[in-house]
Design goal:
This protein has 13 helices and 34 strands. The protein has 635 residues and is an alpha+beta fold. The strands form 8 sheets. It has an 8-stranded parallel beta barrel with strand order 4-5-6-7-8-9-10-11, surrounded by 5 helices. Helix 5 links the parallel strand 6 (114-118) and strand 7. The chain is globular, with a radius of gyration of 26 Å.
């Protein structure tokens, strides 16, 4: 072990010899600055924690995942609260069903797990817009994560709802929340606005009390720590397996000279983007570095312990040199898989933890059962352009120039922009997004015939042909808003004019598409009035809906959907949006389907929106294992 590690271990293990006096029955959680540790009920305390996101796991499985974490030897979990998950529409709050945060906290409490709460308002988390609601962007000049009046007012209103719900769950009030993070990795953001951080500190103190341990988390650089920390908020650091531990904790010490060492995000794995290789972090590295940190007396949270799934439209995106969308699976190469199964990494972590604390006796709960239900052949429902009466019941908004998703108050999913060709185009004519204004991907059809696509940062021109007056439909897909960095003001749709040859396209009809609403009400399976085409000799191209049914066989086990030779799109099963598929780009090839979503007695309805090209066979395959690491190819 390095000399620096030994020195830290000697200093911080002093904490283990200290314990204070406590009035019998009184619960407390605090920082002992003198002895560099946390105190729980007056006794020294070191947490070994793992991150789990209730928003990425079906409620049915919360207890299973928490029990597996507890049986690994963890004594705490770390939880993000995504603001947009609970307030999709401004002023309308949802804390029921899969959004029932208090039920999740209660299950953790029953399991014996303490909670490190990270309520944001910004969380990053590779989650849509970093957890910030897209309706904030209705204020076009808003400066997010700053003391901007509009932003601060929205944050204050949200915390006035959330934090009073959290107060009873504080450890000192009989709950299990021991510490609460203020903002998240704020030093990584360009604003560096201490007035904003002071306002947040005031809000947290007002709603949670003066004695709650509040902390910040920042990356392992001086700049990040300088902008992300604030007096009165305990400064912690985050880093992964390739970092010099002694240097990282020395940096924490420069900003927080006394108190416990804390790595708030020790990376057990990493995220995937569409088109990039599948990320993997070595088991031995994770075990070794975890052991070294615990030997030093440090408090460690493993990010992630289980990643889960970006169901629906909840995936985020990055924009460093170009826009890159996060894949649907948030497996993260974590100790528990996307489906909550124990891995070799989990067993290795448990062996490390055994050296530092007694872990619960008894067997590790097994992997959930999986089933390969086999092939299902789908049938075509129709082109999206022909289904607008069903998918856009409110009808179009007319505008001379394109409007964004945010201006239309349609924040997620898809919108269709319709106009007509201004003149005859007998030769292929370039349709150009000169200002890179397609956010994020546009599927172009003329009179219902697919012509090509435009893609943010990469494909700014496609060719079209047709006659004057022909209908031009441009279906625009929101691929997830940027969740990290300076570009989180990520507007969607057509942000600027499209130019066809020498003409600026104008006089648009803009259709907000409520695809999820239609499917939730049973469409297309329940719509017996529509007659669907029979088997196709040639695969359809462009945005087309398909449907099928998985017949019940008495089992409702987890399964994985593989769309072999399909190109890109979205899948719903029994009304639930499973997320995006894009096997042509990879690396993810299968979508996780939680067993409780399936019916054991009724036909299970499958709806697929294929955006580019379906295979002639129109089959999908239900497998008993995931496939997340195909070689990435550009498509």
């Amino acid at each position: 072990m390095a000399a620096g590690v030994l020195l830290f271990a000697a200093v911080n293990l002093l904490c283990l010899a200290v314990s204070g006096n406590l009035v019998s029955g009184e619960r407390s959680f605090s920082i002992d600055y003198k002895n560099n540790c946390f105190l729980k009920d007056g006794k020294t305390f070191q947490y070994i924690s793992g991150s789990i996101h209730y928003s990425r796991i079906p409620r049915y499985y919360w207890k299973d995942r928490l029990l597996k974490m507890y049986m690994t030897g963890l004594n705490a979990i770390q939880v993000y609260v995504p603001w947009n998950f609970h307030e999709e529409v401004q002023g309308v709050h949802n804390f029921s069903g899969d959004q029932d945060l208090e039920h999740f906290l209660d299950l953790a409490n029953q399991t014996g797990l303490l909670v490190i709460l990270r309520p944001g308002p910004y969380i990053c988390a590779e989650w849509e817009m970093g957890g910030l609601p897209a309706w904030l962007l209705q204020k076009p000049n808003i400066i997010l994560r700053s003391a901007d009046t509009d932003y601060v007012e929205a944050v204050s209103n949200w915390f006035a709802v959330l934090l009073p719900k959290m107060k009873p769950w504080l450890y000192v009030n009989g709950g299990n929340i021991i510490t609460v993070q203020v903002e998240n990795e704020y030093g990584s953001y360009y604003t560096c606005d201490f007035n904003y951080m002071r306002h947040l500190r005031t809000l947290f103190r007002f709603f949670l009390g003066e004695d709650t341990v509040l902390f910040t988390t920042d990356g392992n650089t001086d700049k990040e720590m300088a902008c992300g920390t604030l007096q009165g908020l305990y400064a912690t650091v985050d880093f992964g397996t390739d970092t010099n531990i002694t240097e990282a904790f020395s940096r924490q010490r420069r900003f927080e000279p006394r108190g416990p060492l804390v790595n708030s995000e020790f990376y057990t794995g990493w995220l995937d983007h569409w088109g990039d290789p599948h990320a993997v972090v070595d088991v031995q590295k994770v075990s070794r570095v975890l052991g070294e940190m615990l030997t030093m007396g440090a408090n460690v949270n493993m990010y992630m312990f289980e990643g889960g799934t970006n169901f629906g439209y909840w995936n985020g995106a990055d924009h460093d040199t170009r826009f890159r969308s996060v894949v649907t699976s948030y497996d993260y190469d974590a100790p528990l898989t996307e489906a909550g199964d124990p891995t070799e990494k989990l067993l290795a972590i448990r062996d490390v933890i055994k050296q530092f604390r007694n872990i619960p006796s008894g067997p590790m709960p097994p992997a959930t059962p999986k089933f390969a239900y086999g092939f299902v052949t789908l049938q075509k429902v129709g082109n999206i352009s022909d289904l607008l009466n069903t998918l856009s019941p409110v009808g179009p908004v007319k505008s001379q120039y394109p409007l964004t998703f945010e201006e239309m108050k349609q924040y997620y999913g898809y919108m269709l922009y319709r106009t007509t060709l201004p003149r005859d185009l007998s030769e292929p004519t370039p349709l150009i997004s000169p200002l890179n204004g397609v956010h994020d991907r546009a599927y172009v059809s003329v009179n219902g015939v697919f012509q090509g696509l435009l893609e943010r940062d990469t494909v700014l021109v496609t060719n079209v042909t047709g006659q004057q007056g022909d209908t031009v439909d441009i279906l625009v897909e929101n691929m997830g808003r940027v969740n990290f960095g300076s570009k989180i003001n990520d507007y969607k749709g057509l942000l600027s004019n499209l130019i066809l040859g020498k003409d600026v396209l104008t006089d648009w009809k803009i259709y907000p598409l409520d695809i999820d609403g239609a499917i939730a009400h049973g469409w297309p399976h329940s719509d017996s009035r529509e007659s669907f085409p029979g088997p196709q000799k040639e695969p359809s191209v462009g945005p087309v809906f398909y449907m099928g049914t998985l017949q019940p066989n008495g089992l409702a086990w987890d399964t994985f959907l593989k769309l072999n030779e399909w190109t890109k799109g979205q899948v719903w099963i029994n009304g639930m949006n499973l997320g995006r598929y894009w096997p042509a780009r990879g690396p993810q090839q299968t979508l996780y389907i939680p067993g409780p979503l399936l019916s054991t007695t009724l036909p299970n309805n499958i709806t697929v929106l294929e955006l580019e090209r379906a295979p002639a066979h129109l089959r999908v395959l239900f497998m008993d294992r995931p496939h997340l690491n195909a070689t990435a190819e550009k498509s």
